[in-house]
Write a structure and sequence with these properties.
3 copies of one chain form a homotrimer. With about 300 residues, the first copy, chain A, is of the alpha/beta class. Chain A folds into 2 domains: about 140 residues, Rossmann fold, CATH 3.40.50; about 150 residues, Aspartate/ornithine carbamoyltransferase (Rossmann fold). Chain A is built from 12 helices and 9 strands. In chain A, strands 7-6-5-8-9 form a 5-stranded parallel β-sheet. Chain A is globular, with a radius of gyration of 19 Å. At the A-C interface, β2 and α3 of A face α2 and α12 of C.
Amino acid sequence: MSLRLRHLTTLENLPRATIERLLDRAMSMRDACAHGTRKLDLLTGRTVLNLFFEPSTRTRTSFELAARRLGADVINFDIGFSSTSKGEELYDTLHTLEAMHLDAIVVRHKVSGTPEELVRHAMSGVSVINAGDGNRAHPTQGLLDVLTIRQHRPNFEDLSVVICGDVKHSRVARSDVHALKALGARDIRLCGPAALMPDEDELPSCQRFTNFDEAIKGVDAVIMLRLQKERMIATDLPDEQAYFEHFGLDNRRLALAGKGALVMHPGPINRGIEIASEVADGPQSKILEQVGNGVFVRMAVLGEMLAR
Amino acid sequence: MSLRLRHLTTLENLPRATIERLLDRAMSMRDACAHGTRKLDLLTGRTVLNLFFEPSTRTRTSFELAARRLGADVINFDIGFSSTSKGEELYDTLHTLEAMHLDAIVVRHKVSGTPEELVRHAMSGVSVINAGDGNRAHPTQGLLDVLTIRQHRPNFEDLSVVICGDVKHSRVARSDVHALKALGARDIRLCGPAALMPDEDELPSCQRFTNFDEAIKGVDAVIMLRLQKERMIATDLPDEQAYFEHFGLDNRRLALAGKGALVMHPGPINRGIEIASEVADGPQSKILEQVGNGVFVRMAVLGEMLAR
Amino acid sequence: MSLRLRHLTTLENLPRATIERLLDRAMSMRDACAHGTRKLDLLTGRTVLNLFFEPSTRTRTSFELAARRLGADVINFDIGFSSTSKGEELYDTLHTLEAMHLDAIVVRHKVSGTPEELVRHAMSGVSVINAGDGNRAHPTQGLLDVLTIRQHRPNFEDLSVVICGDVKHSRVARSDVHALKALGARDIRLCGPAALMPDEDELPSCQRFTNFDEAIKGVDAVIMLRLQKERMIATDLPDEQAYFEHFGLDNRRLALAGKGALVMHPGPINRGIEIASEVADGPQSKILEQVGNGVFVRMAVLGEMLAR
């Protein structure tokens, strides 16, 4: 039996049993939401702080709904509008909020490692959940991605997945790889322009490609990453049409993947840059399923940490 | 028996029975709020999204309170602060939010017809409620206005009402006329400067006036509209004092109306421009009753659509 | 038996019995929160409006948590973002919100006396709670300060307290003095640069000092005030290091106080200006206890006013 999680800052080195327990919990949350007409009250009397240093209405709303559906109170503390943004002042603000009896802090920050900083400074009894730090980790996204895959392809030992785009700067890619590896995925492929691929010594267990037609061959799932347009400049494909031609996903290219391969994207999508509308809105797209699973995964994580 | 409403984008062509059922429901909500010491839990587990493209603290707060008093969760998504404001990106954001299991979207937008656009794009199972689109419709305002009138003058077949001000640009005026007509109001009068009157072929069942002293004669209710000061320029009364003299409501002019005529205004009022303080704060003013009824009407609409 | 409070705008002239009842209630709230796994439902169905004209995430969050933990709904109305900021328009907005059936208004405003203005204009049945007005009063801060002291030094007739810093502009200092006097504190000392001391005829029952080493001698509690840096200019110590040398609290100076003297601060603290980190983070610091007590005191005040 694995221990109950206290914090969730990364999926790296998380035991397979813990990940599977969280996915199972997420499925229970889905069932409870589908059947019940009443809110769950697992977290009644608990308080969750949303501490977002980067704007993200989607992820913040997902966490907020997850917490409220379990009966918790949610405080949205938009640090951008406050005077405190770093160092001692930030920790004084954090301790002040904790002294009002917080149970969990959901944090997003552009600097990698901030969640661990908070874990070091957080008071005993307060859980920290990483909602994305720099290009390092986005663990609930990793969990919701493997949950979505598991619903359609339950046998990970047979699974082949390609992750395509700006892998170098993607916290989603890293958390996906960590979760896929933990669950025993057979074949994990990374694909992107050379300038946007991670360093050679990072993610050593993955196959690397710079030709998407080759990378996609026969895979069970294609995870497309959002391209920050300003990063396209750094590649040798500095315009949208050329980028799309080489690394975009359209129906022609999707036909090279395995039959009925899952199409996934963490959103928000750039239509016509990394993904064609015919694919994003097509029958193999699981993009909106991912969003729905996101709420259940966050309910599972909050429930795991905060239920009495 | 009329069908349960799925969406509410306009009152135009809504059957009288549906409107009356909503008004009756609003009265039940009022009674439940007055007697009960506990919140109603009709919408426990339901989630309502407030999607306001125009700022409106008053209407948004009214919808938020209505939803919360029925036990629903409310997400305020201020689109002005997000990157998505139109077209495909907007619909991707909408679908993302829907995939988190929304039950209703309350939308305000300056472009007429946006609520119907959302109805076309919304997923099955999500209700759309118009909180005001362009100069076209504001159906919950129309409902709360006829509810306020019904509480004091229940016989609509005897009713004479004047709506005065910038009728041309007023979604309130249009929804009021639709609701009053559906309920069989005998005599609906529109009054305003020629430049601010609607086209001749619009609202054909109404009498038209440009002389307020004549228009107000003997009416049971006077609905004053808020004047956007920048629109005064377009009239031949381009200063506040001249406008007030011709189209403002003071005690002298109110005395020309029927005995105890109701004074109404959707708010916020411009004191000294369209309405004198002696009238706004006087014994015939129902302006704050309208606000209170607004919460009950919105509870009724949400209950009609979302109760299981 | 003292009467139930209707409004709370200042602690000045509040009877000792009322203050003690509120402190006792706050302790009950603390116990209920500590033992129960469920939210209290004392205020279910009640609505509290947070009306903040000055930004204050900390105090607003404290009131919001207090209200929600008692089951109330909370509306945050950020007046800074609305068009209404003063005079008639403000009262029209206030009445509009009241007509949606508010039970209490929590107000912060930079102009002293605004809460009393609201009391004069508020509808019957709506309670007004001052969350800080100008330099005049911050009654819930005064209550949470005496609660914190009472937990460690229950005999006020033996108590000696010094309040140090910009007393002249501090609403916290005034509410602290009022609460301490009402509870019979033996010795209340005020200390600060001459330019930042209140007028001679104000707070006549307090001893006055401009030498902190003398003022702190033997006291049971030291309440440090936050220094607005722009006000330091007005003193004869116009730089941070010189100010800290004369009026800052470090371990050397704290050793002059009574054994184990309590160190308090309303926050947010300016480290190295009015207080050294060694003291703020040291064993005698009660600063975070104050924050925790703040929620309980606000629960007590809301419960006193709004419970049916």
